[in-house]
Amino acid sequence: MKFALAIALALFASQVCLHAGGDEVVLIYNSRVPESKAIATDYAEKRNVPKQQIFGFELTADENITRAEFRDALQKPLAKKLEANQLWRLSSVEIAATNDKPAHVIRRVVTSKIRYLVLCYGVPLKITRDATLKEAAEEAMRPELRRNEAAVDSELACLPLLGLNLPLAGPLPNSVYAVTNAAFIHPTNGVLIVARLDGPTPEIARALVDKALAAERDGLWGRAYFDLRNITEPAYKPGDDWIRAASEVARLFGFETVVDQNGATFPASFPLSHIAFYAGWYSEGLSGAFTLPKIEFMPGAFAYHLHSFSAASLRNTNNNWVAPLLARGVTITMGSVDEPYLGGTPDVGTFAARFLFLGMTFGEAACVAQSTLSWQTTVVGDPLYRPFGKTPQRLHQDLEARGSKLVEWSHLRVANLMLARGGNAGSAASYLEETATTRQSAVLSEKLGDLYAAQGKPSSTVRAYEQALKLDPSPQQRLRLRLALGDKLIAQDHNEAALANFQQFLEENPTYADNLAIYRKLLPLAQKLGKPDAAAKYEEQIKRLTEPAKP
Q1: Which one, of 15, 18, 351, 378, lies nearest residue 179 by Cα?
Q2: Max Cα separation, the chain?
Q3: d(Cα 462, Cα 112) in Å, to the nearest integer?
Q4: In 3D, which of 337, 336, 389 has the Cα closest to residue 362?
Q5: Cβ-count burial of 530 within 10 angstroms (0-12 exposed, 13-18 middle, 19+ buried)?
Q6: Which of 173, 262, 192, 177 is closest to 225 using CA atoms?
Q7: Where are the extended beta strands (E) located within 39-124?
Q8: Which residue, among 502, 474, 478, has the nearest Cα to 488 in the 3D structure?
Q9: How far apart are the first and last CA of the chain?
Q10: pLDDT 10s per residue in the chain (551 long)?
């Protein structure tokens, strides 16, 4: 089986992209917010950003900034500093005549030492609308796009094009959208990669790089969850298509992948365990399974919920999505500060393919996932974060050499890669059976049970799930195992064991969001087993949970 491991991982070596280092980064902090400079200094130390590439600006401490203050206190002064410090060089370039324009000369970035701009906690989030600003270009725009508010991040991504005096109203096309060559994402091509170290508190913002570094060392492991709406309306179908594409990327990458086809978001009763990657839509604020007191985000986890105002504030953990996700442990995310319309939101399928398969940094993948700039998207997290920079073989060997428990996820990936490449459940099960780690791993024992179920081996499935429950599964994994085990026991007519399992479930999960479903399983079991007292108790609970609320 070592041969099978080597072959599976060798077939899946990530492509090696550009080396991304701190020397390519410029850090921006708000000199009026003490925590802002502290976060910039901390990041510079951890990512080796040269001191001369850290700039402070006196900005409002509010999340919103006026167009005039943005232009005069940040945008233009930053452009001047980059040129004065020889971080990039501008030159006059002649543009050939076209059918509607004569030949003309523009000033543009022709060389650049930097590619990334990192905004630190305290730098404003959103440029507010300037109602006095009227531009001739607006006349050619659709009425709903005749707006000049924008995310600070998205506007600064166009900083290399400042000399072109492009319109401020509406979005601009992103010249690097969906590219696969990371070298093309460069100021000489008109784009800066912009992200922010931000969140509800300075501590959360500071921790983003620590979690990124941990995942770069140990890998980004866990399960991938995708929440579709299964929508067919042409105007909204692209949102589903992007998320479905991301789910297929995750599956082919070897993640244990769960796709929900229901219109609603994952309900509170759904067991989301070991979350490494999440993408879904379309709920105004944190809902369903994400409202539980503790969410099982893995170190380095990405989570994104498509909604028009998902990042309206990064401070308020009770509203929208981005701030609450950051507060619950997400390492990287994206969102909209204002209405972008669906076409102006990130293409998460493009993001997943570049981040996972091509090994781009988070900043690179997030940049090329945006079809528009000078618009509403903010990108939160360490843009240099690249958890898939090592080859799978090297990472697996590193984890084994350190005796890391995370090696169980690497073995799970091998099993999933076998299946993704046309292998059968029997071969994947054989691999796990012969892997010593399986006998100590709840993750691998559960997967082995799933593979037995796919082969039509109910008794083996039950034994594998029971073994997984003995191996310290996470709380949400334990919940999922109990539910699956109970159903398998019922199917085999092991009613006494099923009854005991669901009773244990209620003891372990007294606040479970759908205990009604559990009582509805327990009632017929108690009746079949001739337990009238238990049946009466379950009937009473069902009645209590189904009675309409009294006015």
Answers
A1: 351
A2: 92
A3: 60
A4: 389
A5: exposed
A6: 262
A7: 54-57, 64-65, 88-95, 104-112, 116-120
A8: 502
A9: 64
A10: 554 554 455 445 444 455 678 999 999 999 999 999 999 999 999 999 999 999 999 999 999 999 999 999 999 999 999 999 999 999 887 777 777 777 777 788 999 999 999 999 999 999 999 999 988 888 889 999 999 999 999 999 999 999 888 999 999 999 999 999 999 999 999 999 999 999 999 999 999 999 999 999 999 999 999 999 999 999 999 999 999 999 999 999 999 999 999 889 999 999 999 999 999 999 999 999 999 999 999 999 999 999 999 999 999 999 999 999 999 999 999 999 999 999 999 999 999 999 999 999 999 999 999 999 999 999 999 999 999 988 899 999 999 999 999 999 999 999 999 999 999 999 999 999 999 999 999 999 999 999 999 999 999 999 999 999 999 999 999 999 999 999 999 999 999 999 999 999 999 999 999 999 999 999 999 999 999 999 999 999 999 999 886 66
For 441, list phi and psi in degrees, rounded to 5: -120, 120
Residues 58 and 73: beta-carbon distance below 8 Å: yes
> What single string gives the DSSP state of each residue in 137-165?
GGGGS-GGG----EEHHHHHTTGGGGGG-
Q: Which helix (H) or strand (E) holds 277?
A: strand 275-280
The first and second tokens of residue 432, run together, are 């796990």
- The answer for residues whose C-beta is within 8 angstroms of residue 148's C-beta and 6 or more apart is 67, 127, 129, 130, 133, 135, 168, 169
Q: How far apart are CA 160 and CA 162, in angstroms?
A: 6
Residues in the chain: 551
Structure tokens at 273: 């365990």
